[in-house]
Specification:
This protein is an all-alpha fold. It has a domain of about 35 residues. The chain has 2 helices and no strands. The model has no long low-confidence stretch (mean pLDDT about 95).
Length: about 60
């Protein structure tokens, strides 16, 4: 039981005293970048899906 207590105590000390947390403005910038990149990726995947669907429909209609 003492080992578990030490683990949580050491973890709390690490998080509160030794970790350097980013500033809120840095978090906002990173979040915006992730959002924009995710939207671009979704659009590219959607476009590829649409092209494959259209191509396969044309292919199947030719028979």
């Amino acid at each position: 039981m003492n080992k578990i207590k030490n683990l949580f105590g050491d973890s709390w000390t690490e998080v509160t005293e030794n970790v350097t947390w980013p500033k809120f403005s840095e978090l906002q910038a990173s979040s915006t970048l992730v959002l924009v990149a995710s939207l671009i990726f979704a659009l590219v995947v959607g476009l590829i899906d649409f092209l494959f669907k259209s191509g396969l429909e044309l292919f199947y209609q030719s028979f």
